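Lab meeting, item 3. Inverse folding demo.
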């Protein structure tokens, strides 16, 4: 959280882009050769110079002087009348128009550029890096009408954006921008590689509880207004595709199930006051022993630090406690914008780093896929570092309608995290999450049972891999075989809470 914004998610969207090689002739202004320029500046200063004076000043022979004057006259730079030299009217005009007393001359110059354009509004992207998109990102595919006319659009965009393109190219070479009048003609346009520019958006609430979506600063400063508008509209469209309703009772049932009475003070009917809750966490919200309130995605840096601190302490045996070694189970909510981006990848890497030194200990991620959608869901984890991906069918044994809103993380017999993802009012497709990191025995038992219940019987599909990997578990492998660390008797006897039904 920073300033008056309360961040609750980060999502990487992929802006479609394509580079084009463009050969063109540019109308430029150039300095003349040094000797020619010196002669013209002399005439500009003196007005008129006699032939004999010109010859004597430069030490030319008569033949050299005549040859030089003839060449300058032929180019229209000077005139010789009655043994007197002076500037031509054309050159007088050039000196008058010059801001630095140099006689710049116009010239056509051939130029080759490889320019990346976005495929939403076809604006120049400067030196933006783009590559083949990871399926973990939310890809904004270009409109068909743009793809079908990309060459003509690139030709038009090159003309319109040439000043920016030329300035960016000169900056990249560490040179001063050429003096030019723009594009004279375009010889050819050749389509090169396509790709995507990853842009990680921050989703936050302002003081009034309204959604604020922040783009990367560098992109927002450099992009043209029409691209920013088109990108924002496409992002909103993507969220609205996945808009889901809410019964309004989820928070009450969630609070009752996990006995999280500290959350009840933020509930007014079916409305949860995310902003006041986030503020109070920032101010050090008091919570019962064994609980630490959390707001927003677990892969936000502030929450990632809490989880990794708990992991390191458990595995190191801090304050005289024994070392506790285990793998980690992380069950995703059924939410399309969970775990999509570079922040999730960083958190996966950090958790795996914290688990090193524990033999076969690993991070097990559980996600949900309808029949026939297994590979599509698996692909979302490409390039994230997740090597233990296990798919389940949505629903599960004795599941409440809101079970898909739960996100669970379990480090067996040590700590767990439970988060509820709830739609943000007035923002279709956007959900924020609230919950706790807990060391309470009853919570650990309940989280454990919920994971096993949701993966029970035929609901467990199996271990899967992204399309960029080649390993895959045998179809006959069950959860007990693939996730043995979860099959244990709960660490102590106690009341686990009510059943999720």
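The presenter then showed the designed sequence:
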């Amino acid at each position: 959280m920073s300033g008056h914004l309360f961040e609750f998610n980060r999502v990487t969207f992929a802006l479609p882009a394509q580079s084009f090689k463009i050969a063109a002739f540019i109308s430029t202004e150039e300095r003349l050769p040094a000797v020619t320029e010196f002669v013209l500046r002399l005439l500009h200063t003196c007005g008129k110079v006699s032939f004999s004076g010109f010859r004597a000043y430069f030490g030319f022979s008569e033949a050299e002087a005549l040859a030089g004057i003839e060449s300058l006259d032929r180019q229209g730079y000077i005139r010789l009348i009655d043994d007197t030299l002076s500037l031509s009217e054309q050159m007088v005009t050039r000196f008058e128009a010059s801001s630095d007393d140099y006689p710049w001359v116009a010239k056509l110059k051939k130029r080759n550029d490889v320019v990346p354009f976005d495929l939403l509004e076809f604006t120049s992207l400067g030196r933006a890096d783009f590559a083949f998109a990871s399926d973990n990102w939310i890809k904004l595919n270009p409109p068909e009408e743009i793809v079908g006319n990309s060459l003509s659009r690139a030709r038009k965009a090159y003309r319109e954006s040439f000043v920016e393109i030329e300035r960016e190219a000169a900056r990249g070479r560490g040179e001063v921008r050429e003096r030019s009048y723009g594009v004279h003609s375009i010889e050819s346009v050749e389509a090169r590689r396509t790709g995507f520019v990853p842009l990680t958006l921050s989703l936050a609430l302002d003081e009034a509880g309204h959604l604020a979506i922040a783009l990367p600063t560098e992109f927002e400063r450099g992009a043209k207004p029409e691209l920013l508008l088109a990108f924002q509209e496409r992002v909103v469209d993507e969220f609205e595709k996945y808009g889901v309703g809410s019964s309004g009772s989820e928070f009450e049932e969630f609070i009752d199930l996990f006995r999280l009475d500290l959350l009840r003070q933020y509930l007014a009917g079916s409305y949860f006051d995310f902003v006041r809750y986030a503020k109070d966490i920032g101010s050090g919200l008091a919570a019962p022993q064994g609980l630490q309130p959390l707001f927003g995605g677990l892969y936000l840096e502030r929450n990632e630090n809490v989880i990794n601190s708990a992991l390191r302490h458990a595995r190191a045996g801090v304050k005289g406690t024994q070392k506790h070694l285990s793998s980690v189970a992380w069950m995703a909510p059924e939410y399309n914008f969970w775990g999509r981006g570079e922040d999730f990848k960083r958190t996966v890497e950090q958790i795996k780093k914290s688990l090193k030194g524990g033999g076969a200990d690993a991070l097990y991620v559980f996600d949900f896929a309808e029949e026939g959608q297994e590979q599509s869901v698996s692909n979302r984890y490409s390039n994230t570092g997740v090597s233990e991906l296990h798919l389940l069918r949505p629903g599960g044994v004795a599941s409440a309608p809101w079970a898909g809103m739960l996100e669970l993380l379990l480090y067996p017999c040590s700590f767990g995290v439970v988060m509820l993802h709830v739609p943000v009012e007035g923002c279709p497709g956007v959900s924020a999450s609230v919950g706790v990191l807990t060391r309470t025995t009853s919570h650990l038992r309940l989280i454990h049972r919920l994971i096993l219940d949701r993966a029970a019987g035929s609901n467990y599909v199996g271990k899967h891999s992204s399309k960029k990997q080649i390993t895959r578990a045998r179809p006959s492998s069950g959860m007990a075989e693939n996730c043995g660390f979860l099959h244990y008797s709960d660490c102590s006897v106690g009341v686990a809470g009510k059943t999720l039904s």
